[in-house]
Design a protein that fits this description.
By secondary structure, this protein is mainly alpha-helical. The chain is built from 32 helices and eight strands.
């Protein structure tokens, strides 16, 4: 299985010897580095080689795209993200990655390492030492210089064969057929002049939308012959082929662009990943000659036609070498700060809207959008931390809870710590920043540290005097008390948060601070043994959430209803509520919550006599608990129920059958098993 891979639709030609060498290296080496000049096709070769399950020995492949990463302090976090980890422990991200991979036989690809070589070298040295069955593949313009490293230099394509084949394919994409003998000769000559560099060939072929092949050959000859021997190609002696050809091919594409297209190219280079029209308009537009959306749209169309941008499903992408070129032009123009500022301000407005709409029908959509836009938001935070720390803190305060729920605890701490230290002493964003830090510590099991930061949050909230901020502080302190096993203290904090703004358990208000305190109150009532009141208040809150199309709060109301049903001996009700938990948590991408939901479903199934269902749910849950870095957790009341139900399922199935079902589920696809558990689908064949 290939995870987090880039676009697989790119054409691939030639490279049979290189593919054979990669296959051999995957079987015999711990680390393979594909190196070569920009645009030569390192990533494409790695992708094609790893697409064959036979060549990779059936091992899963996890692809880490590094082109958008600028800070090697977050390198291990990028790997954790590619592995699907949502680590909720006090370990460093690197420790979490090493612990998760352990003895697993998998392949890890670090794509585009050249700007982070020292960090990648240190990371891989640790991973290869700690994870004996790991194979790593790196693509980089510079070798990593590690003892285990096998280096494969990726050369340009043979111009007369694979280069010509690539040009022919791309010409057809531009609506031009290169089939007669004269056209083939012209195309071959052009590929030779481009040194067989794939990206240069593709950029040239894209110009056939506005020029004939004869004109194309003449233009490339006049642009590339300066200072080079006539007929020099990939096999000519002298300087290494590739970089000059690619540079001048990009230069030529730039010259063919009009002023607006050139400026859009430069401004868009601040975007790190793929992007949609809205981000393109915000970043490239707003200043002459691209003030109007129609002007930006026209420039985008032109850049796609020239293959400066690729477009798929309404989103755009710029290759590294082309982005680097655009960024050079942006720096030369003196517009770098302005473009980065427009980019950051757009993402800040988006984060503010996500924050405002968190508690409502758009919640799940925002979780998905925030997850996909993580790299861009991090880029905006980097820029604002250097230029406007107060704005950086506001951005992080708005987006941070989404990041926490998506498992980016290390990253939110990394950014918020810096922003809180640099931002003004008080203000709502600072209170919310401290709140996020308190939650990070509490969710990682650092209860005392979390409670200490929650206390700072409360003190700052008192200074601000805002009810919602005071309620958020009460939530953080109440959560800490619950995790410490002190439900009565949590209940007092929740009631204090609700006092003056709601009657506990009866209010129909639906705002962030109120629902957070109501949740703490419900958990505290359950922990105190007051199940009747806890059930009534949880049902009221759940119904309120359903009426508003909200998922996060509802999932915890359902969690409590499932737990109460188990304590009351109502196993079927517990199954239904556990499924509702899984449904909501799947919608917002909360791995920790999915693990909790699977445990509750397993307990309920064991009590219903469905022992194999219980074993499968426990096995799938085991995988999710590994992804969050914890042994099984949840509220204190769950632990004895879990132990009892596991004994019941083992007794019903027998130890051997139970272990087999558990193992097969733990080794299966956890997302598919979570879907099965959530929606009552047929039992999967695992």
């Amino acid at each position: 299985m290939l995870m987090n891979i880039p676009d697989k639709a790119n054409i691939f030609v030639g490279r049979r010897p290189e593919l054979a060498r990669v296959a051999t290296a995957l079987a015999t080496s711990r680390l393979l580095t594909l190196t070569g000049t920009a645009g030569v096709g390192k990533s494409r070769l790695a992708l094609r080689a790893l697409a064959s399950e036979e060549d990779r020995g059936g091992r899963d492949v996890h692809w880490v795209q590094l082109r958008s990463l600028r800070d090697d302090a977050l390198l291990a976090d990028a790997v954790a993200d590619a592995l699907g980890l949502a680590d909720h422990t006090a370990r460093t991200a690197l420790e979490a990655v090493c612990g998760f991979i352990g003895e697993r036989p998998l392949i890890l690809v670090l794509d585009s390492c050249e700007h982070l070589v020292p960090g990648c070298r240190a990371l891989l040295a640790r991973l290869l030492a700690d994870c004996p069955r790991l194979t790593a593949v790196a693509t980089s313009r510079e070798v990593l210089r590690l003892p285990e490293e096998e280096v494969l230099r990726v050369e340009p394509l043979a111009p007369a064969r694979a280069g010509l084949a690539l040009f022919t394919h791309r010409a057809a994409d531009a609506g031009v057929l290169v089939h007669d003998a004269e056209d083939q000769k012209r195309a071959r000559r052009l590929c030779e002049r481009l040194d067989g560099v794939p990206l240069a060939i593709e950029l040239a072929a894209a110009q056939l939308r506005t020029a004939s092949l004869v004109e194309l050959v003449d233009r490339v000859r006049s642009g590339l012959d300066m200072g080079r021997p006539a007929g020099a190609g990939a096999d000519a002696s002298g300087p290494e082929p590739g970089p000059d050809a690619l540079r001048e091919a990009i230069d030529w594409s730039h010259e063919l662009c009009d002023k607006a297209e050139r400026l859009a190219w430069a401004r868009l280079s601040v975007i790190r990943g793929s992007f949609g029209p809205e981000l393109a308009h915000a970043t490239a537009g707003g200043a002459p000659p691209l003030e109007q959306p129609a002007e930006v749209d026209k420039a985008l169309t032109g850049l796609v036609q020239r293959s400066v941008l690729t477009e798929e499903d309404g989103r755009y992408r710029m290759l590294d070498a082309i982005r680097d070129y655009g960024h050079e032009r942006l720096t030369e123009s003196g517009e770098e700060h302005a473009a980065a500022d427009r980019h950051a301000r757009f993402l800040s407005r988006l984060a503010a809207q996500a924050h405002r709409e968190w508690l409502g029908p758009h919640q799940a959509a925002w979780y998905a959008q925030v997850g996909k836009g993580y790299a861009e938001t991090a880029a905006a935070a980097d820029h604002l931390l250097a230029t406007d720390p107060g704005a950086a803190l506001q951005l992080l305060a708005d987006i941070g809870f989404f990041w926490i729920c998506n498992g980016h605890l290390h990253e939110i701490e990394h950014y918020v710590d810096r922003a809180v230290a640099a931002a003004p002493a008080f203000g709502p964003a600072r209170v919310r920043g401290l709140w996020l830090l308190a939650l990070c510590h509490l969710l990682r099991g650092e209860h005392d540290k979390g409670l200490a930061v929650a206390g700072r949050c409360r003190a700052a909230a008192v200074e601000e005097g805002t009810v919602e901020l005071l309620q958020q502080a009460a939530y953080a302190e109440g959560l800490g008390e619950l995790l410490k096993g002190r439900p009565q203290s949590a209940l007092a904090l929740a009631d204090a948060g609700l006092r003056g703004s709601a009657v506990p358990g009866e209010d129909a208000r639906f705002d962030r601070g109120t629902v957070l305190c109501r949740l703490i109150r419900i958990f505290a009532l359950t922990g105190s043994g007051d199940l009747a009141r806890a059930r009534g208040e949880a049902q009221d809150l759940r119904d309120l959430c359903l009426g508003h199309g909200e998922h996060w709060t509802r999932s915890y109301a359902d969690y409590q209803l499932a737990l109460i049903a188990l304590l009351d001996g109502r196993a079927q009700d517990a199954v239904e509520h556990a499924r509702a938990v899984l449904d909501a948590k799947r919608r917002i991408g909360d791995s920790f919550g999915i693990a909790m939901g699977l445990d509750l479903a397993a307990v309920a199934w064991a009590h219903q006599g469905q022992a194999r269902h219980a074993a499968l749910a426990y096995g799938a849950g085991h995988t999710y608990w590994q992804l969050v870095g914890h042994p099984q957790r949840g509220t204190p009341e769950v632990a004895p129920l879990r132990e009892e139900s596991e004994r019941m399922a083992r007794a019903a199935l027998g130890d051997e059958a139970y272990e087999e079902a558990f193992r097969r589920a733990a080794e299966g696809d956890p997302a598919s098993l979570a879907e099965w558990a959530a929606y009552g689908l047929p039992v999967p064949h695992v």
